[in-house]
């Protein structure tokens, strides 16, 4: 009998294979996202342009194609991938810390808080530019987080309370957002904001890619360092503490990372719901509950899902694009209902 | 002495739950914590393993105050089995028992041979080795409790604290869990409700009343009719059982309070 229990060579190889497969699928999905659009660009051109951009090749390409790829579609696909990855990661972290299968940034009202913060910057004109908006969204997300955690004090004894607190928090921040919009925004601003509240990848450019990567990559590394600590939360906070986990510090760090990632994503692309809910469950189904595998799996599947959702949002209606939040909600809401239906009654 | 409490108090939300409790646990013994609901058994266990900070008094491990030890150091010498703890996660028996190695592994260290040995021994001690791949949600209450004990044993603790380990179990499984605990060479402190089972399986008993120690010592010295009347308000006859040689408490029907008889 082998005693190298947690990952025999065979299983480790399998998981490495899955990661390679997911990366390949992600690359293909992003290539498709770059190809598909009002002006169709052949896949081969996409890969050649990518080679040119990376400086490994020098294919002669249509300059319009190359500039569409470089200036618009590649940055958009990268931000979509980062957002999907980041939101799915946040969902996995929150579900573990709060021991609730329904926990995710959108359901907990963190996205709503970030929206309120961002709308205050956009409409009330506090600050300006990408950093100003991100900062507003970040402060809004932190505020929402604080409100939800304060409302759900003692959530360790009743994991469902945090969801109710999230509902209350969402309502509060959505009301504040609506208040700011209806009292201060011009008609044109309102149209822009409504589209943005449902998620919109239309405006992203290269600085957004830099910001998204700068948040998601360190965020992922930090979360992965805490993978084992998250496993220890399986039977609750006290059980984790009894296993030697500094529960307060771990919660503080991971909540801060989650709030930072969510806030950055929302400030760039608006509130996109249900990605953080659906993807960790799908990932758990494939690789199991251990976080050292679950977190990378959530990251990759989240990235793939969001890139595909972006493609769907652009092609589902002729000559018009649907807000991406609508697409993710159409997939996510039924899954939410399914999880609610399957949830085991508390003992 | 392994764990000692020196005049420990704990209050929460303005209510004093544990009141000036002193006790000393002798290594290798099985100690039963008895007392009515709300007498502070669970709270005292949580104080003893450092999950709650005392509001007064001192807890020491081999004369070292618990505050000076890190969470991980405490987890390496003391394990806690909570009352019917469960999870929504789709974990297997092996996943749960492996959690016991958490305090022995650093953030980046891999799984080592000694971790496997500890997990295998723990599984064998509770007789769950053959069912390691079984899903948590398919286990019975008694099996779950055995897996929790295996997880705690995988921590390689010197002391094991158990909070009502037989709660919600039928009598067969209660006896099975207590016999299992009794067999362990580890020092055990467990909160129990059943006085007869406590008399059968514990070397020492601590009887709590409203957060205070009403009596402590051998079952023979703690379980007396007067004390049970005082602590639980129940009339009893206590005798040594001719069948198993331990004390046996017979509960007598309660007389109707005056005014309810007619």
UniProtKB/TrEMBL annotation, chain A:
Keyword Oxidoreductase assigned: no
Keyword vocabulary terms for this entry: Cell membrane, Membrane, Transmembrane, Transmembrane helix, Transport
Pfam families to which the protein is assigned, alphabetical: FecCD (PF01032)
Transmembrane regions: 77-98, 105-124, 130-150, 162-181, 209-227, 239-260, 266-287, 294-316, 322-341
Highest taxon of source: Bacteria
Compartments reported by the entry: Cell membrane
Keyword Protein transport: no
SUPFAM superfamilies: ABC transporter involved in vitamin B12 uptake, BtuC
UniProt membrane topology term: Multi-pass membrane protein
Family, per entry: Belongs to the binding-protein-dependent transport system permease family. FecCD subfamily.
Protein's recorded name: ABC transporter permease
Species of provenance: Kushneria pakistanensis
Lineage: Bacteria, Pseudomonadati, Pseudomonadota, Gammaproteobacteria, Oceanospirillales
From TrEMBL, chain B:
Organism, as annotated: Kushneria pakistanensis
PROSITE patterns recorded: ABC_TRANSPORTER_2
UniProt xrefs under CDD domains: ABC_Iron-Siderophores_B12_Hemin
Domain ABC transporter residues, every copy: 3-235
InterPro entries: AAA+_ATPase, ABC_transporter-like_ATP-bd, P-loop_NTPase
Keywords: ATP-binding, Nucleotide-binding
Protein name per the record: Sugar ABC transporter substrate-binding protein
SUPFAM superfamilies on file: P-loop containing nucleoside triphosphate hydrolases
